C-alpha cells in the first residue's frame, strides 16, 4: 500500500534559486533561511521517499488566463522547466510518476474534484525551487514527482476549505493505491506577502506563525478564512496558504512536528519551513 | 461567504473577472515575454509590439512610463507584469519601491521591520 510518511512546507520564490546559483547561502541575509534546511534534507535522505506530491501554483509559465485550471494534476513521466521571462538557465527535467498520478486523478474525479489532467505541463519555480532546496545542485532526478497546481493568481480561486478537502481526498487516494510506495507531500509557497499595489511589502509574522502552529494542531481552523480574508490579513499573495493547507489535508492520520524554521523576510515574503511526520493508524 | 463577494482593499488591485477581461491583452503581451524572441521584438519596437496585442492607450502609456500602478489599474496581473519587470531587469524590491514611492533601500528596510513583526 502507498503510504504518506510526511509533509513539508517550504517557500518557493525565485530569489532562492538565484541565491543558490550565486552561492549566497552563507551570507548574513540568506543564512537564517538556508540554515533551516539541513535537518529536512537529512530526513529525506534517510527516509528515501519514492514519490513527492507537490502542491504549487503556476506563475504564468504553463498556464495563461486564456484557460486557467482551478486545480490541475500532472500525470506525465517527465516535466520540464523553461524560461520564465528572465532568461534563467533551463534546469534538468523533473521525473514524474504516471501510475499513481492517474490513480489519484481517477479517484479525485470520482470524489467530486474535477481536475484538469495534464500529460504535458511545463513546471515553473513554484515546483523546481522546493526540489532544488531539498536536493541541492538539481539532484532531484531520482525522486518521482506528482505536480498538483492550484490557481492562486486569478479570482475566483478555490477557497481554503476546498483546498483542504482536496488534500484529504488525495490522502485517501494514496492510501488506496496497491503498490508499496513511500510518499512525502510538499505544500509550497507563501507565507504572508503582497507584491502588487501601494500596499506591497506586507508581511504578517504573527499570522504566519499562528498558521504554522495551526497546521500542526488544528488545520481545520484555518479553513474558516476565505481568500479575501487572507488578502486582508496576509497580503494579496497570502492566498498561497492554500498549498500548505492542501498538503496538511493529505495527512489524514497522526501528525508529529519534527522541525520548523520561520524566517522573514526573504525577498518580499515570510518563509515557513516545517517537517511533519505522518503515520496511519494500524488497521 | 457570498458568491461574487468583492471587497475593497486600499492599495490592492484584486485580479478578478473585471481585471482579467480589461487586462487580457496587456497580460497576454507580458506572458509572451517568457520567450527571448518576444523580448527582443518588444525591445526593437515597443509601440509596434503593444499594438500587436491591442493594448489600450492607457496601457501603452503605462508600459512606456514603466508605471506599475497604472498597469495594475488597467488590468495587469502582477504575475505577468513580473515578466515585464524581468525584461526591464527589475527585481521584486525594485517593483515594491516603484509602487510605494519609496527608495529601494527604504522598501527593503520596511520588509525587514515587517518580517521582525515590528508593525
TrEMBL record, chain B:
Instruction: Give start and end of each Extradiol ring-cleavage dioxygenase LigAB LigA subunit domain.
Output: 26-111
Gene3D superfamilies for this protein? Dioxygenase LigAB, LigA subunit (1.10.700.10)
Q: Which UniProt keywords apply?
A: Dioxygenase, Oxidoreductase
Which InterPro entries does the UniProt entry name for this protein? LigA_sf (IPR036622), Xdiol_dOase_LigA (IPR011986)
**Pfam families for this protein:** LigA
- Keyword Oxidoreductase part of the UniProt annotation: yes
Q: Does the keyword Mitochondrion apply?
A: no
Q: Name one GO molecular function term.
A: protocatechuate 4,5-dioxygenase activity
Q: What EC number(s) does its UniProt record assign?
A: 1.13.11.8
State which residue ranges cross the membrane: none
Coiled coil, from the record: none
Which NCBIfam families does the annotation name?
A: PRK13378.1
Name of the protein in its database record = Protocatechuate 4,5-dioxygenase alpha chain
Which organism does this sequence originate in?
Marinomonas gallaica
Q: Which gene encodes it?
A: ligA_2
Amino acid at each position: 500500500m502507498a503510504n504518506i510518511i510526511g509533509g513539508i512546507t517550504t517557500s518557493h520564490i525565485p530569489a532562492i534559486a538565484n541565491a543558490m546559483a550565486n552561492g549566497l547561502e552563507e551570507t548574513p541575509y540568506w543564512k537564517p533561511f538556508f540554515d533551516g534546511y539541513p535537518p529536512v534534507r537529512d530526513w529525506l535522505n534517510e527516509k528515501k521517499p519514492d514519490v513527492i506530491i507537490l502542491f504549487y501554483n503556476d506563475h504564468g509559465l504553463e498556464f495563461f488566463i486564456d484557460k486557467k485550471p482551478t486545480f490541475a494534476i500532472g500525470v506525465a513521466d517527465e516535466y520540464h522547466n523553461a524560461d520564465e521571462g528572465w532568461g534563467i538557465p533551463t534546469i534538468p527535467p523533473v521525473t514524474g510518476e504516471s501510475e499513481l498520478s492517474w490513480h489519484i486523478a481517477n479517484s479525485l474525479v470520482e470524489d467530486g474534484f474535477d481536475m484538469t489532467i495534464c500529460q504535458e505541463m511545463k513546471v515553473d519555480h513554484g515546483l523546481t525551487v522546493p526540489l532544488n532546496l531539498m536536493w541541492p545542485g538539481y539532484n532531484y532526478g531520482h525522486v518521482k514527482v506528482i505536480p498538483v497546481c492550484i490557481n492562486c493568481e486569478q479570482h475566483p480561486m478555490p477557497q481554503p476549505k476546498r483546498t483542504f478537502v482536496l488534500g484529504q481526498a488525495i490522502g485517501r487516494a494514496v492510501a488506496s493505491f496497491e503498490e508499496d510506495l513511500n510518499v512525502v507531500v510538499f505544500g509550497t509557497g507563501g507565507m504572508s506577502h503582497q507584491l502588487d499595489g501601494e500596499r506591497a511589502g506586507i508581511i504578517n509574522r504573527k499570522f504566519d506563525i499562528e498558521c504554522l502552529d495551526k497546521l500542526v494542531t488544528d488545520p481545520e481552523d484555518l479553513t474558516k478564512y476565505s481568500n479575501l480574508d487572507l488578502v486582508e490579513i496576509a497580503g494579496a499573495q497570502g492566498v498561497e496558504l492554500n498549498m500548505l493547507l492542501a498538503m496538511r489535508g493529505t495527512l489524514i492520520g497522526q501528525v508529529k512536528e519534527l522541525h520548523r524554521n520561520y524566517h522573514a523576510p526573504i525577498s518580499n515574503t515570510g518563509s515557513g519551513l516545517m517537517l511533519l511526520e505522518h503515520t496511519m493508524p494500524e488497521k | 461567504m457570498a458568491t461574487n463577494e468583492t471587497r475593497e482593499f486600499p492599495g490592492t488591485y484584486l485580479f478578478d473577472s473585471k481585471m482579467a477581461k480589461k487586462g487580457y491583452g496587456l497580460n497576454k503581451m507580458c506572458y509572451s515575454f517568457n520567450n527571448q524572441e518576444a523580448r527582443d521584438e518588444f525591445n526593437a519596437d515597443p509601440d509596434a509590439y503593444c499594438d500587436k496585442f491591442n493594448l489600450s492607450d492607457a496601457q501603452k502609456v503605462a508600459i512606456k512610463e514603466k508605471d506599475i500602478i497604472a498597469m495594475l489599474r488597467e488590468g495587469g496581473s502582477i504575475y505577468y507584469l513580473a515578466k515585464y519587470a524581468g525584461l526591464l531587469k527589475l527585481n521584486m524590491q525594485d517593483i515594491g519601491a516603484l509602487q510605494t514611492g519609496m527608495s529601494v533601500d527604504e522598501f527593503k528596510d520596511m520588509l525587514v521591520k515587517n518580517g521582525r513583526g515590528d508593525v
